[in-house]
Amino acid sequence: MPPVPIIAALQLPPFDDGKHRSIAWYEDFLLSNARIFAEGGIKAVKIQDETREKGAAAPQTIARMATLGRAFRKEFPDMQLGIIVQAHDAIAPLAIADAADAHFVRLKIFVGAAVNAEGLRDALSVEATRYRGDIVRPDISIYADVHDRTCMPLAPVANETAALWAQSMGADGIIITGTSFADTLSRVRAARAAGVKRPILIGGGATADNVATALDAADAVVVSTSLLRDGAAYDDFNLWDKDKVLRLMEAAQRK
């Protein structure tokens, strides 16, 4: 299934931020904010876990994300759902997506090796594609980041080479995000020129002012920050701004 052109990233408050919130609270937070995106015309939402973990995702993270994904699918059956977890884990996002009947997962450090603020990260591609085969869910798309901007590759591999690696290792879509919007567009063009045939998604930096340009270069964009409500707390039930969503969608349609 090709990516929806506009994918909203809905970041959940961490499960371990000391506030001991119930799963009912997280469900209310999710559905309230997802409704803002739905009413603004967005057709795909990626639920993003922000719980920092050492190693694989904890059982609580997997259980809660699956439960929340099911709640989303019940409330918004016509929207595409994506899953990402903060933990460096090839299996958990796909297991959650299987349980929640999600459409795609986003995996960072899909090929190669990198270091970020949490330490060393190695490629998830082999384990992820093998597990997806084991659970017989080829319909769950894997969108793979290439040199995600939150990390540094451990070897000087060209961005377009890493994109080709990700394509060859089974990614259904390649997520490219540079250090600036101009750098992102340059990386997208280089990936296409190098022979990347899979859909390319821009992983950040999209705004109402540049979304049309972004969609001229790539197949889809992931957007969140530019749609936040001014002054909102990270755990507000209306964290995103419907008017900003509507403006972005209007700009995207002028492409």
The gist of it:
This protein has 255 residues and is of the alpha/beta class. It has helices at residues 23-39, 59-75, 92-100, 125-134, 159-168, 181-194, 211-217, 242-253, and strands at 6-11, 44-48, 80-84, 104-107, 113-116, 119-122, 141-146, 151-153, 173-176, 200-202, 220-223.
Give an account of the 3D structure.
The chain contains eight helices and eleven strands. Helices cover 38% and strands 19% of the residues. α5 (159-168) packs across α6 (181-194). It has a single domain (6-253), classed as TIM Barrel (Alpha-Beta Barrel). The chain is of the alpha/beta class and 255 residues long. The model has no long low-confidence stretch (mean pLDDT 94). It has helices spanning 23-39, 59-75, 92-100, 125-134, 159-168, 181-194, 211-217, 242-253; strands spanning 6-11, 44-48, 80-84, 104-107, 113-116, 119-122, 141-146, 151-153, 173-176, 200-202, 220-223. An eight-stranded parallel beta barrel has the order 1-2-3-4-7-9-10-11, surrounded by six helices. Strands 6-5-8 form a three-stranded antiparallel sheet, with no helix packed on it. The longest helix has 17 residues, at 23-39.
